[in-house]
Amino acid sequence: MSGRGKGVLAGSGATEGERDHEVLLSAVRPLTEWYRKNKRDLPWRNQADAYHIWVSEIMLQQTRVEAVKSYYARFLKELPNVKALAEVDEEQLLKLWEGLGYYNRVRNMQKAARQIMDVHHGEFPCTYEEIRALAGIGNYTAGAVASFAFGIPKPAVDGNVLRVVSRLLCSEEDVMKAGVRKRFEREIEAVIPSEAASDFNQGLIELGALVCVPNGAPKCGECPLAGTCLARETGCQGQLPVKKKAKERRIEKRTVFIFRDGRAVAIKKRPAKGLLAGLYELPNVFGHLDGEAAIAYSKSIGLTPVRVKELEAAKHVFSHVEWHMIGYEMLVDELEKNCSDWMVFADGGELEDKYPIPTAFSAYTDIAKGNGRSS
Ligand code: ADE
User: Fold this and answer.
1) Does residue 59 have its Cβ closer than 6 Å to ligand 1?
2) Residue bearing the CA closest to ligand 1, atom 2
3) Of ligand 1's atoms, which has the minimum distance to the CA of residue 45?
């Protein structure tokens, strides 16, 4: 496999840098043609509305293409343009994002929409530099919006592209390193065709999603770039890209409570800062409480359960932490009469439509809404 950079390759006068440039340059035409013939028909394609593209790209950073489709349609129906996003109430915005995770991303989208209203008179900016200057927009998103919406030849290097390029160049460098990503960006930028920036960039992404796939054997038999792929030549495509192991996640134990009376379920708003800031949650405490301790806790907040049911354990994985949860459903006499002032009382419909509750709790919110397995 390749080391990197300036060294002269054995048996040829070319440096590695020059060889990489040749390989990428020779990919431009076959990749662009392949994309035009083979691209999936996705709702955010075949149009060039920068706002639509931006929304889809932020969503695609969070979840799979299939899952994005319904979020994308609902988001644009509720917030059809930058002005609507800039003006929407935060809770309604978070509700539209419920289940996608990384809620700061959608908060940043609202900040960016307000920047567009204030600085660009409501018109989505059309230069790479102005797009890159918007809140929450990094190199990838700026390159994607600039090239897909405006045909600007700037790179859009996501995980798909890192995989495709590290295989094409047979690079064993760690693609988790910012320096490696930056170099790939420079090398791609040097070959993006100015008349087909969108199709070329989307072609790299699509090839990574459909052919040069992760986890297991890439489908080299279907690949338009198989003839020039250096990893394929040496048979090392299955070992690439090299990704340094992520740091181990911290494990947090939690006990989650569904306090209900005949009418409502208690929820509370999370603090304005930190993980899942400003969203709602089922009441919960650190640690795994046994039944006795759980009843003692509920009494300590003014609720005396008349029936207690232990719920199944559940796990939720965030990027840096894992929640290992156990839960109790507690039927109490009358929530509102007895309860502390930090609680909000929501019926099934409000849990569904009004309050944004993170997916981390979904094993228990499904039960709270009456959709899950319980009493
Ligand atoms: N992943 C990231 N951007 C994408 C796009 N525009 N289409 C499909 N998958 C993607």
Assistant:
1) no
2) 60
3) 6
Distances (CA, A) of 349 to 282, 324, 345, 354, 366: 15, 27, 12, 8, 12
Confidence band, pLDDT 50/70/90 cuts, at residue 54: very high
Is 6 a residue whose pLDDT tops 60? no
Per-residue pLDDT at 353 exceeds 80: yes
From the alpha carbon of 158, which atom of ligand 1 is closest?
Answer: 2
Cβ 42 under 6 angstroms from ligand 1: yes
Mean pLDDT of 282-304: 95
List the structure tokens of 12: 């040829």
Of 18, 22, 33, 57, which one is the catalytic site residue? 57
The answer, yes or no, to whether any atom of ligand 1 lies below 6 A from the CB of 60, is: yes
Q: What is the identity of the amino acid at 285?
A: V
From the candidate CATH numbers 3.40.50.300, 1.10.340.30, 3.40.640.10, 1.10.645.10, the one assigned to the domain spanning 16-239? 1.10.340.30
Q: How far is the CA of 216 from the centre of ligand 1 (A)?
A: 21
Fold held by 250-369:
Nucleoside Triphosphate Pyrophosphohydrolase (3.90.79)
Cβ–ligand 1 contact at 196 (below 6 Å): no
Domain map of the chain by residue range?
A: 16-239, 250-369
187 lines ligand 1 (CB under 6 A): no
Annotation says 57 is catalytic: yes
Confidence band, pLDDT 50/70/90 cuts, at residue 124? very high
Residue 268 pLDDT class (50, 70, 90 cuts): very high
